[in-house]
Design a protein that fits this description.
The complex is a heterodimer.
Chain A lengths: L1 E10 L2 E11 L4 E5 L6 H8 L7 E6 L14 E4 L11 H11 L4 H10 L15 H13 L5 E5 L7 H16 L3 E6 L2 H7 L2 E6 L2 E7 H6 L5 E5 L3 H10 L3 E4 L5 E4 L3 H10 L6 E5 L3 H16 L9 H4 L6
Parallel strand pairs in A: 3-7, 3-8, 5-6, 6-7
Antiparallel strand pairs in A: 1-2, 1-4, 8-9, 10-12, 10-13, 11-12
Chain B lengths: L2 H17 L2 H28 L5 H6 L2 H4 L4 H22 L1 H8 L3 H35 L12 H26 L2 H20 L5 H6 L3 H6 L13 H25 L3
Classes of the chains: A alpha/beta, B mainly alpha.
Chain lengths: ~325, ~260
């Protein structure tokens, strides 16, 4: 269980993380989402006590990170920037980490095997490809066989093979019942691996909940209705509080009125329906929507009214 | 499982860190090589020049400190290594892995200083003793000293301690400044350039200030006679150690609160 309470980080005038209160549920994979610069990495560094919060607090399993004597047994972490001395071998890197937390040398060989780096264990880490470096980082995170893992953008910059490997690794962690907080700016990636989502933008919490909840609450979720008598149906639905957008192909996209209610209204008024189907938003759409709102929110109110092109910039960079 | 357990685990980790990078071994080997090679070089030139020296010069010649003069250059090798032991962690981002593994930053720093001080002392004493015996062997045809001469053992031990101290001073500067180039610049400036600059001040300020600077204070440990006013060996040791410990203490205070 990872919890933050009113966690805030300021750099001068800039607020990187803004009173962020969130809790990462145990035993599942939680996707930590937000556009680049939203404050994901800063939040993770504060959870690990690498950066000091300006105010607020973060706790892992009910304790501050700094109060854990040998943290690698409880929390494994992979940070975005490489944290490996390039002149040291893969085994050398894992060995000093293991020694610092009284982890056996045998475990070093085990994690090298786990990530498939046994053959290059004696090679300098500086000569590793991005994918191999990421595997070494994951080996380091797994060294103490921790129940909780914090992974910052683990697939960033990886080739397809590396992405597939990280993805299957995340799934195996989930199946073992570990608590995983994995940050990403890629929604599609999270759709494949996460059970729970925490979405932040400009350092603030935008949404948290199960993947299904976040998708369902998105206004991109709607009911698609096709009818030869579209205009009459549209008027009827609008009168009953629906929000409707018209498609080019005469389909109605209906929000705010339940699908059974739409069917009932059509039957009561003898309107023929050709199609009546629920359209769940993709995670990608839900995310775009959330961060698009953020973009508008970010626009300086004193400046001239935002044009559509400026509001999609995200502003959080 | 008290804090001592954590410290001991980190001492082991820092020892692995130190020996698993090849450049460390090079810097240590270079420290020994420079100290010994310069001692041999100075001694040979002195022997070949001996008969042309005036009697006064021959009387003033002090072979013990003379054989340790290579330390003026080799201090740079071990000092730079001390800087790098710390700044390489910041430069590569490894510091985040280090602090994520051990959140107690004071413990990490203490382990790092401890391991490096011991390694520095061993390498320093090897350099110093080898330089002494090689130098005296070459000087033996003219005017040499024995390790049992008054002050000889103290000087040679002091030479090794000086090298270890400069290494720890460099490490402390590395913690404070975090950047390799900046820390090396300050190291070179404080042990090599500053004494020269102070020398330009009007007398007696130059002598009064100079002897308290890190390198003249440290060198008081292994220079038996000096043509300049200097501190006694004991006071020199204390002043010199104060610089090394002081740099580490300031570094620790900054390290505690700074973001990694």
């Amino acid at each position: 269980m990872i919890e933050t309470t009113e966690l805030t980080k300021r750099y001068g005038d800039k607020v990187a993380v803004d009173h962020l209160t969130m809790s990462v549920p145990s035993g599942q994979v939680t996707g930590f989402l937000g556009p680049n610069g939203a404050g994901k990495s800063t939040t993770m560094r504060m959870i690990l006590d690498l950066d000091a919060p300006s105010s607020g607090s973060a706790k892992v399993n009910g304790r501050r990170y700094r109060d854990i004597r040998f943290p690698l047994h409880e929390v494994g972490s992979l940070l975005e920037a490489k944290s490996i001395h390039p002149a040291r071998s893969a085994r050398g890197h894992l060995q000093w980490l293991a020694d610092s937390n009284r982890i056996s040398r045998k475990r070093v060989d085990e994690v090298l095997e786990l990530v498939g780096l046994s053959a290059v264990a004696k090679k300098r880490a500086g000569g590793f490809s991005l994918g191999m470096g990421q595997r070494l980082g994951i080996a380091a995170a797994m060294l103490g066989d921790p129940q909780t893992l914090l992974l910052d953008e683990p697939v960033n910059g990886l080739d397809p093979e590396g992405i597939v490997w990280v993805r299957s690794f995340l799934r195996s962690l989930a199946s073992e019942g570990r608590t995983v907080l994995v940050s990403s700016h890629l929604m599609s990636e999270m759709a494949l691996t996460a059970d729970y989502l925490i979405v932040i933008g400009a350092g603030r919490l935008i949404s948290q909940g199960s993947v299904n909840d976040v998708v369902a609450n998105s206004s991109s979720s709607h009911v698609l209705v096709r009818s030869p008598d579209g205009t009459r149906l549209a008027n009827l639905l609008t009168a009953n509080g629906a929000e409707i957008t018209n498609d080019v192909d005469n389909a109605l996209r209906v929000r705010k009125v339940d699908i059974t209610r739409i069917g009932q209204l059509a039957a009561d008024n003898a309107i023929v329906l050709h199609e009546l189907s629920p359209q769940a938003a993709s995670l990608e759409q839900a995310f775009m929507e959330l961060t698009h709102d953020l973009g508008e929110y970010q626009t300086d109110p004193i400046a001239s009214p935002p044009s559509p092109s400026t509001s999609t910039d995200g502003g959080a960079n | 499982m008290g804090p001592i357990t954590v410290l001991w685990a980190n001492i082991r980790a820092e020892w692995v860190k130190l020996r698993s990078v090849r450049s460390t071994l090079w810097a240590l080997a270079i420290t020994i090589a420079i100290t010994v090679a310069l001692s041999a070089l100075f001694a040979s030139t002195r022997v070949s020049r001996w008969d042309r020296m005036s009697l006064a010069e021959q009387v003033r010649f002090e072979p013990i400190g003379f054989s340790l003069n290579g330390i003026f250059l080799s201090q740079l090798a071990i000092g730079v290594l001390g800087v790098l032991v710390m700044t390489s962690e910041f430069a590569t981002g490894q510091i985040r892995a280090t602090f994520a593994a051990t959140p107690s930053r004071g413990t990490v720093l203490l382990a790092k200083i401890g391991v490096f001080a011991v390694v520095g002392l061993v390498i320093g004493e090897i350099s110093s003793f080898t330089a002494f015996f090689v130098g005296q062997a070459i000087l033996s045809s003219k005017h040499s000293a024995s390790i049992s001469d008054p002050g000889a053992l103290r000087s040679v031990l002091g030479g090794g301690l000086y090298l270890a101290g400069i290494g720890v001073f460099g490490l402390g500067l590395g913690v404070i400044l975090r950047r390799t180039a900046g820390a090396i610049a300050v190291l070179v400036a404080s042990v090599m350039i500053l004494p020269q600059l102070v020398e330009l001040l009007p007398s007696p300020w130059n002598d009064d200030i100079s002897k308290y600077l890190p390198s003249p204070a440290g060198q008081a440990m292994f220079h038996i006679t000096s043509n300049r006013p200097s501190l006694s060996a004991g006071v020199g040791l204390l002043v010199f150690l104060a610089y090394a410990v002081g740099a580490c203490l300031i570094g620790w205070l900054l390290l505690r609160t700074r973001d990694a």
